[in-house]
């Protein structure tokens, strides 16, 4: 690939983070509500904080990890060299309603900032910048898939599992 297509990149990023934005989709299901943000906004904080397997991760943890990684990428896009402590990206596992709403807003804000930064950037001659920017797409796709599978399990078992958790 000799040139970097910002428009194609942004369309794929939008699809993964927001959901269907055009008549067709490249990565996700065509129905509305299948991007990361639209998927997580249907969950309560309690659901987002519930691990679907013992010792497993939560939707809140995946959401924070995605937000954190986009924030890190934004630093690089701005010409910074931020330190990457990936363990820090998984520090949030549970949230209350206020924290959950803030986490969703923070994810949307950093997504918008990434989108703006990529859109405004003209110099794509640095191979590491191109690779790092492109790497965000499969990373988002992976976490979208993980989140959607967790939501599927939660939607099938929320009443029983959440009830058991609160009794323990």
Short précis:
The protein has 168 residues and is an all-alpha fold. Helix content is 62%, strand content 0%.
Explain what you see.
By secondary structure, the chain is mostly helical. 62% of the residues lie in helices and 0% in strands. It contains six helices and no strands. α4 (59-77) runs antiparallel to α6 (127-167). It starts with 5 loop residues before the first helix and ends with a helix.
Task: Output mean pLDDT.
Answer: 85
Main beta-sheet annotation? none
Number of helices: 6
Global outline: globular
Beta-strand segment tally:
0
Oligomer: single chain
CATH homologous superfamily grouping: dinb family like domain
Classify the fold: give the CATH topology.
Four Helix Bundle (Hemerythrin (Met), subunit A)
Helix percentage: 55-70%
Secondary-structure element pattern, one letter each = HHHHHH
The second-level CATH architecture is Up-down Bundle
- State Rg: 17 Å
The CATH class = Mainly Alpha
Our count of domains comes out at 1
Q: Span between N and C termini?
A: 55 Å
SS-based structural class? mainly alpha
Present the secondary structure layout:
Layout lengths: L5 H12 L18 H5 L4 H4 L10 H19 L19 H24 L6 H41 L1
Helix pairs in contact: 1-5, 1-6, 4-5, 4-6
Organism: Ohtaekwangia kribbensis
Protein name: DinB family protein
Task: Identify the notable features of this structure and list them briefly.
6 helices, Four Helix Bundle (Hemerythrin (Met), subunit A), mainly alpha, 168 residues
């Amino acid at each position: 690939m000799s040139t970097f297509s910002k428009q194609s990149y942004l369309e794929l990023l939008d699809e993964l983070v927001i959901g269907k934005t055009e008549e067709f989709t490249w990565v996700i299901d065509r129905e509305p509500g299948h991007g990361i943000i639209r998927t997580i906004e249907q969950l309560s904080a309690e659901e987002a904080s519930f691990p679907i397997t013992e010792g497993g991760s939560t939707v809140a943890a995946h959401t924070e990890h995605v937000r954190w990684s986009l924030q890190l990428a934004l630093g690089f896009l701005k010409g910074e060299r931020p330190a990457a402590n990936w363990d820090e990206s998984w520090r949030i596992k549970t949230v209350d309603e206020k924290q959950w709403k803030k986490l969703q807003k923070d994810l949307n804000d950093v997504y918008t900032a990434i989108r703006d930064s990529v859109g405004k950037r003209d110099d794509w001659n640095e191979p590491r910048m191109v690779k790092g920017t492109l790497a965000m797409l499969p990373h988002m796709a992976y976490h979208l898939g993980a989140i959607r599978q967790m939501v599927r399990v939660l939607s099938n078992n929320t009443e029983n599992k959440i009830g058991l958790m609160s009794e323990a």
